[in-house]
Amino acid sequence: MDNNYTVGTVMITQEQIYKRAEQIGAQITQDFQGEAVLVVGILKGAVLWMADVIKHIHLDDVSIDFMACSSYGASTKSSGVVRILKDLDNSIEGKNVIIVEDIVDSGITLNYLKQYLEGRHPKSIKVCSLLDKPEGRRTELEADYVGFTVEDKFIVGYGLDYDQKYRNLPYISYLEG
Questions:
Q1: What distance in Å separates the CA atoms of residue 59 and residue 101, rounded to the nearest whole number?
Q2: What structural domains and CATH numbers belong to the chain?
Q3: DSSP E strands: which ranges in the chain?
């Protein structure tokens, strides 16, 4: 790792994240009352957030799956090239799909992912993101459920990483340097 980076101050606490996950889970429960949902976590960053949110989705039929894609590599800037590293295990045709992402930044990866999944004919596709960084947006895309809006910094913690480091921080911070 580049020794010029250090972790900044706490931006969002673990307690704030838990509270917001509870609120979003309740909203998803209300929005999909009486229906089944497939929650698709985007590896690896969204795992902690997804776990918190699904605990608060009180529907009879909630299933999960995972995808992995990348547009960063070992950099703090998106390369703009999206690669699917792991695809879904099951069909999503006719299903309500909720993509759970750690952060909507440039929007390139999520925009690509939505189009990719729409080609499989789901009933609906919604996006639930822990963080939204609108200043980083390079394409038109809005998440349906957003935990927090953050400023244009390189965010780490609570699943978000820099070159696979800092995912284990129990709060949201940023790199400075």
A1: 21
A2: 13-148 (3.40.50.2020)
A3: 6-7, 37-43, 62-70, 83-86, 96-104, 124-132, 145-149, 155-156, 173-176
Across the chain, mean pLDDT equals: 92
**C-alpha gyration radius of the chain:** 16
The pLDDT value recorded for residue 34 is 97
Q: How far apart are CA 63 and CA 96, in angstroms?
A: 10
Sequence length of the chain is 177
pLDDT in tens, 17-73: 999 999 999 999 999 999 999 999 999 999 999 999 999 999 999 999 999 987 755
Interval 100-128: pLDDT, tens: 999 998 888 899 999 999 999 999 999 99
In DSSP terms, which residues pair with 40 in a beta bridge? 65, 99
Q: What is the pTM of this model?
A: 0.91
123 — alpha (psi -120 to 50), left (phi > 0) or beta? alpha
Give the residue from 9, 21, 15 showing the smallest Cα distance to 130: 21
CA distances from 14 to 58, 152, 169, 171 (A): 22, 21, 9, 5
Q: How far is it, in rounded angstroms, from Cα 136 to Cα 76?
A: 12
Residue positions annotated with a catalytic role: 105
